[in-house]
């Protein structure tokens, strides 16, 4: 039992860390005009990672094609929204906003999922309302909207709004996919929603005016390869392994180490500093998420596809 928990903790920690590096690598590729355009990066990311997961699933004996045609169609559509939409908005946003801002804005997803649940008849507890309020204030502090002297709406950058669009895409994907995941399984679902994003991304690449922007040097290609393999294929694999070994309440809390990873590594790797006030905002975000009673063990197990977006 102890070994199982330790292994689950390791896999969940690995997935949280790798998803954090998505924002760091993406920002390194996108800033200063960008070494590669968001469409091409997203296309390489999900076609490569999806193919890798499909191959590994087949070799390991998973039933990668055991689903109905209707579920296949659902996974393709959900992949276009959740994977393609989320990735495009994040990478577009990172052309004008920092890695820290991107990761913190994406912590709005649990709040949006709670609000989206209202449309399906779910109730929000007082603790959840308080948690949402605390997390929202914290996020506003990190991105510079809430300052020691008041609220500054002019602090919003285009990249911040684009990243929020990514959070909306992931919320729709999560809410829509709730009933699909139990039928096909988490690993199979993740593989096919990745591959389902490819047709839309390929179409956008064909319709894009001009030629694709590609890295001109080896370091840029290494970052593209890194994003494809580690924070995409390996991180999702680690998430699925962690789900088998530890409960979702602990696993969900662990994923909020992702913005902490970005906050700690953004300065030494990207030269993007942060103030103590912003650090306090990050703490508020984590506190707000922790106030959500759904993390307590007695609650019903959340849907399998509530992965961390990155």
Structure notes:
This protein has 310 residues and is mainly alpha-helical. It has a two-stranded antiparallel ribbon. The longest helix is centred in the first third of the chain and has 29 residues, at 2-30. Residues 295-304 have low confidence and may be disordered. It has helices at residues 2-30, 38-59, 69-93, 99-105, 109-118, 126-143, 158-176, 181-184, 186-207, 218-245, 248-255, 258-270, 276-290, and strands at residues 146-147, 150-151.
In short, what is this structure?
With 310 residues, this protein is mainly α.
What's the topology here?
Layout: H1 2-30, H2 38-59, H3 69-93, H4 99-105, H5 109-118, H6 126-143, E1 146-147, E2 150-151, H7 158-176, H8 181-184, H9 186-207, H10 218-245, H11 248-255, H12 258-270, H13 276-290
Antiparallel strand pairs: 1-2
């Amino acid at each position: 039992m102890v070994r199982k928990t330790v292994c689950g903790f390791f896999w969940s920690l690995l997935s949280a860390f790798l998803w954090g590096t998505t924002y760091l690598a993406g920002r390194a590729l996108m800033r200063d005009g960008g070494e590669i355009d968001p469409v091409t990066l997203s296309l390489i990311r999900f076609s490569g990672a999806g193919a890798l997961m499909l191959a590994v699933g087949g070799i390991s004996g998973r039933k990668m094609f055991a689903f109905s045609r209707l579920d296949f169609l659902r996974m393709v559509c959900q992949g276009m929204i959740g994977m393609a939409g989320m990735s495009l908005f994040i990478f577009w946003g990172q052309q004008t906003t920092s890695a820290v801002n991107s990761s913190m804005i994406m912590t709005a997803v649990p709040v949006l999922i709670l609000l989206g649940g209202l449309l399906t008849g779910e109730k929000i507890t007082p603790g959840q309302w308080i948690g949402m309020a605390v997390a929202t204030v914290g996020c506003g502090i990190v991105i510079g909207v809430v300052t020691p002297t008041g609220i500054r709406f002019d602090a919003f950058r285009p990249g911040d709004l684009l990243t929020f669009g990514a959070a909306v895409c992931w919320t729709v994907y999560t809410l829509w996919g709730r009933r699909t995941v139990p039928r096909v399984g988490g690993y199979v679902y993740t593989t096919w929603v990745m591959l389902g994003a490819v047709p839309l991304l390929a179409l956008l690449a064909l319709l894009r005016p001009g030629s694709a922007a590609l890295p001109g040097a080896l370091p840029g290609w290494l970052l593209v390869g890194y994003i494809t393999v580690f924070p995409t294929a390996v991180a999702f694999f680690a998430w699925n392994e962690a789900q088998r070994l530890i409960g979702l309440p602990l696993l969900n809390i662990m994923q909020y180490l992702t913005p902490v990873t970005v906050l700690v590594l953004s300065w030494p790797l990207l030269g993007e500093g942060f103030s103590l006030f912003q650090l306090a905002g990050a703490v508020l975000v984590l506190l707000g998420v922790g106030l959500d009673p759904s993390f307590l063990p007695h609650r019903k197990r959340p849907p399998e596809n509530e992965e961390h977006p990155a």
